[in-house]
Amino acid sequence: MILQRLKHETQSYHDQMEVIVDLPARLRSREAYCAVLVRFYGFYAPVEAALDRLDGLAHVLPDITVRRKTPLIACDLAALGLSTHDLPWCAELPALPDVAHALGCLYVLEGATLGGQLIARQLAAGPGVTSDRGGAFFHSYGKETGSMWRSFGAGLAEYATTPECEATIIGAAQQTFRALEHWLAGKG
User: Fold this and answer.
1) Rounded distance between C-alpha atoms, residue 3 and residue 50, angstroms
2) Where are the transmembrane segments (predicted)?
3) Domain range for residue 47?
4) Domain total for the chain?
């Protein structure tokens, strides 16, 4: 199954990103949290804009517009007194020429919602951020997180019907992890 292969073949990227980015340290203060939200906005906004321009993705994931995180991050930044105007955008994005590449990228972005549940609890305990006061991004789907993940997995499995397609999706997920890690580490 494609989800198992993705998890196995991206685990080292995921582990490396956790160490380098060190989100728990970035969630200890309001200032550090704002800085990481700015970086997430700078990655998600151009990626989601590219996904919006991609033909065929809505056929695989009919709820793709519900999955957008940029509005949540913008709302969080506004709640914390920051504007999204003139924020830097990542220029070294993962390649998104087709649906297979988009699904690999979305594996990373949608997978982040699973970890977001744990981060949301840390935010409430640390800088006092809640879902309606600067923490919508990490709460994203709330109680629907599990069902949204299963829905994504079902669409992914239905699309990935050949070894070549699976390889493209996995490569795109790895590329997305690298690009996101690079951006969050402040190197891009």
Assistant:
1) 23
2) none
3) 2-184
4) 1
